[in-house]
Amino acid sequence: MKIVSVSLAAILLFFGSILGGCASMDAHVTPVYTVEPGKKSPLSTIPSLAVSIQVEDQRNQFELDRVGNKKNGYGQNMAKVIPDKPPADILRDALKAEFEANNHKVVAPEVSQADALVKVGLKRFWSEATIHFFDIEMVATLETDIGILNGTGQDKLLSKPLTSTFRDSRQYAGEGAFEDSLKGALLEYVRTFSRDPAVLDALKASSTRK
């Protein structure tokens, strides 16, 4: 029994070390979406629009100050994973970059000349590390409700949930692992948004009403 207990303690100590540095210290992350130069998405097939983007943070109150938790080898929460920028701003900047890279203009929500208004309710932006016997699995999720309106009025062209998930397996899970997984979820979200048939149809409808 003593040998088993010592072995178990050694395993837990090992997993505590591969979860990255001091588990009791908060991790700071800056997940950013970067457009590949010269690469276009199906958004480029829509005639140029003036688009307003509004992102409202509607996350669970217990997650508003973080985008994940650092855990020790026992799976206990030890510290926060804190974004250096508000998640709503991170998502808005990502969508703005994607629209602009595909020949659209992003304008402030109060500008009356907008052809389309994209309203996003951010439900969750979260990264989790799960310890398996031979590796650590990082899973990040980005969950939203989106609406697309014609201009800045209330003529709603689309309303639907839109989510993305990113999974990664690695041997070590420091701060960079959380940032990479959140960035992966953000990238997948923008990719899904810019290729979603319902999103494209709603934006095309906005272009025909200009």
TrEMBL record:
It comes from the Bacteria. Residues 1-23 form the signal peptide. Keywords: Signal. This is Lipoprotein.
